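Inverse folding, one chain.
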C-alpha cells in the first residue's frame, strides 16, 4: 500500500494513528491484522520479516499483533554533532568510536485495547534491535480522540549509520533505506467471566516450569527418573546440568554437540541428569531446596555444569548455607563449572532495569538462532506481560540476582570450605555494526558502565571476582576475548567451552 510521507516536523497521521518523529524522514504505512488472521512461517503482519521462534513464542503467549506502523526508507535529517567516545577496555583496547548525538524520541498514539485486554509496543529498528515499550501512567499515556480512547508510547531511537545493516535485513530504496517497525500487541488479562484474573508472571512460571530432575541423554533427550534411575545415580559420580534465567535444559545446553555429550556420558557411566526449574518465580534457595527434596536421602556425588543464574542454584546446593545448612548430607558436590554466572549479581536483574533486561533478551534470542529460543522467548514475554499489567512484583528469582540482594549477601560469606569452582567467561564485542552501536549506547554506558568487560548480561567481575566468599576469586578461568564474539547465550556452542568441560569433568 502507498505510504504517507513524514512532514517537515517528522509527523504523520494515518487514519487513527499519529506518529511524531522529529528529525526523521521516511514514508509511514500502517498494516492491520484482522482478528483471527493466521501467520505463515517466519512472517509477521503483512509480510514483515520476523523469526519463526519469535512468531511461535508470541502465539504461545497469547500476544496478538493488532497493527504495525512501518517507517520505510528511514533517514535522519540530523541528530546533533558527533560526541567523543572511546573508553579503554580490557587489555588496552578501545571500545567504540565517535558517535552522533542521540536523536529525539518518537511518539506514537494508537487506539487503546478492548476491555479485558492489555497492550504493549514492540519496536524493531533498522538493525533488528527489539525494544519493549509500555504506556505511561496518568494523563500523559492515555487520552481520548474523536470519542475513542487512545494510548501514547515513547520510543527512543538512535541515528542510523549509512551502509550498516543487521543480519537478514534488506535495504529498501537507498542508504540506509531500512525500515523501523512498531508493532502494537494485545493480550488478554482476564478470564472471559468475571474480568478478575490478571496475568502474573510468578504464577505462570511456577505452573509452566515445575521443578523436575530427569536423565539427560547424548542426543539431548530428557527422560523421567524412576526409582531405578535414581538408584543408578548412587553407583558413582553423577554429572548434573542446571540452566539459567529465561531458559530450559534444552535451550541452555542444546548447542553442545552429540560427540561431546557422548564422551561425558561414557565418563560418568550414563549418569547424566538435568534440573529444570522456575527461574523468575522462586529464589535459588527454593530451587536448591526442591532439588534436594527430590534427591531425598540418597547418596549422590555430583559434578555440576551450570549457566547464568543456574550457578546461583548450584552454589546453594554445593555450599548449603543458611536455611539449607545440614540438609541432605548424602548429596555432595565435587566439581563445578560456572558458565557466565552472576555470583555478585547483575544490575539487569534489578527491578529498575527489567525493561532493559527484556529488551536484551528479546534482541539476542531473535538475532542469534539456536535450540530452545521459542521457549526462552515465551518466558521473556511472561515478564513483559507482567510489567504491562503491573504485577511484576515479588519475582524472587530475578530479585535474588540483583547486586546487594539478601540472597547474595547470605551466599557470599567467609567459610572454611575450600573452593571447587572453575569459570568460563566472555568479554563480548559484537561483530555486527548495528548490534555494536546498540551495545555501546544502551548497555555499556547506561547499565554496566564504560570499559567494564561483560558478556552482554553479566560482568566478568561478577563471574569471577572477590565477593566476600572464600571460594572467590575464581582462579581456574577460561576466557573468550572480544574478537570471539561470544555473548551470554552462546557459550555452549563454542569449541573452547566444549574442551573446558572435557578438561574439568573427570567422570
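Residues assigned per position:
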Amino acid at each position: 500500500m502507498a505510504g504517507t510521507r513524514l512532514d517537515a516536523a517528522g509527523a504523520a497521521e494515518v487514519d487513527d494513528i499519529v506518529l511524531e518523529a522529529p528529525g526523521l524522514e521516511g514514508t509511514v504505512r500502517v498494516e492491520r491484522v484482522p482478528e483471527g488472521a493466521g501467520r505463515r512461517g517466519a512472517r509477521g503482519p503483512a509480510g514483515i520479516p520476523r523469526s519463526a521462534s519469535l512468531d511461535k513464542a508470541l502465539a504461545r503467549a497469547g500476544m496478538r499483533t493488532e497493527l504495525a506502523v512501518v517507517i520505510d526508507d528511514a533517514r535522519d535529517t540530523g541528530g546533533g554533532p558527533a560526541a567523543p567516545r572511546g573508553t579503554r577496555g580490557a587489555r588496552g583496547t578501545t571500545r567504540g568510536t565517535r558517535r552522533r548525538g542521540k536523536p529525539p524520541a518518537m511518539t506514537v498514539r494508537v487506539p487503546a485495547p478492548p476491555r479485558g485486554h492489555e497492550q504493549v509496543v514492540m519496536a524493531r529498528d533498522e538493525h533488528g534491535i527489539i525494544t519493549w515499550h509500555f504506556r505511561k501512567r496518568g494523563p500523559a499515556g492515555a487520552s481520548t480522540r474523536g470519542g475513542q480512547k487512545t494510548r501514547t508510547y515513547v520510543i527512543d531511537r538512535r541515528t542510523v549509520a549509512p551502509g550498516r545493516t543487521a543480519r537478514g535485513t534488506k535495504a529498501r530504496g537507498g542508504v540506509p533505506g531500512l525500515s523501523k517497525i512498531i508493532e502494537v500487541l494485545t493480550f488478554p488479562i482476564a478470564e472471559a467471566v468475571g474480568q478478575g484474573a490478571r496475568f502474573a508472571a510468578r504464577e505462570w512460571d511456577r505452573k509452566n516450569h515445575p521443578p523436575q530432575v530427569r536423565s539427560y541423554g547424548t542426543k539431548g533427550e530428557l527422560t523421567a527418573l524412576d526409582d531405578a534411575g535414581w538408584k543408578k545415580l548412587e553407583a558413582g559420580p553423577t554429572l548434573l546440568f542446571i540452566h539459567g534465567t529465561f531458559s530450559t535444559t534444552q535451550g541452555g545446553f542444546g548447542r553442545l554437540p552429540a560427540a561431546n555429550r557422548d564422551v561425558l556420558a561414557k565418563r560418568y557411566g550414563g549418569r547424566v541428569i538435568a534440573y529444570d526449574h522456575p527461574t523468575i518465580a522462586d529464589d535459588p534457595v527454593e530451587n536448591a531446596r526442591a532439588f534436594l527434596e527430590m534427591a531425598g536421602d540418597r547418596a549422590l556425588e555430583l559434578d555440576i555444569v551450570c549457566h547464568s543464574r543456574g550457578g546461583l542454584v548450584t552454589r546453594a546446593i554445593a555450599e548449603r548455607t543458611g536455611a539449607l545448612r545440614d540438609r541432605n548430607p548424602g548429596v555432595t558436590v565435587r566439581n563445578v563449572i560456572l558458565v557466565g554466572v552472576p555470583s555478585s549479581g547483575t544490575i539487569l536483574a534489578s527491578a529498575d532495569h527489567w525493561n532493559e533486561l527484556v529488551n536484551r533478551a528479546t534482541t539476542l534470542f531473535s538475532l542469534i538462532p539456536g535450540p530452545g529460543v521459542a521457549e526462552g522467548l515465551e518466558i521473556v514475554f511472561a515478564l513483559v506481560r507482567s510489567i504491562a499489567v503491573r504485577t511484576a512484583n515479588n519475582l524472587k528469582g530475578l530479585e535474588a540476582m540483583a547486586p546487594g540482594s539478601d540472597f547474595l549477601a547470605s551466599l557470599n560469606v567467609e567459610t572454611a570450605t575450600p573452593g571447587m569452582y572453575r569459570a568460563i567467561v566472555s568479554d563480548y564485542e559484537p561483530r555486527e555494526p548495528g548490534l555494536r552501536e546498540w551495545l555501546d549506547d544502551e548497555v555499556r554506558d547506561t547499565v554496566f558502565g564504560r570499559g567494564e568487560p561483560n558478556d552482554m548480561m553479566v560482568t566478568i567481575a561478577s563471574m569471577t571476582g572477590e565477593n566476600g566468599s572464600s571460594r572467590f576469586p575464581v582462579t581456574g578461568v577460561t576466557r573468550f576475548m572480544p574478537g570471539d564474539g561470544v555473548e551470554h547465550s552462546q557459550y555452549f556452542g563454542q569449541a573452547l567451552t566444549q574442551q573446558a568441560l572435557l578438561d574439568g569433568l573427570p567422570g
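The chain has two domains: 4-35+49-80+104-188, 202-504. The chain has 14 helices and 23 strands.
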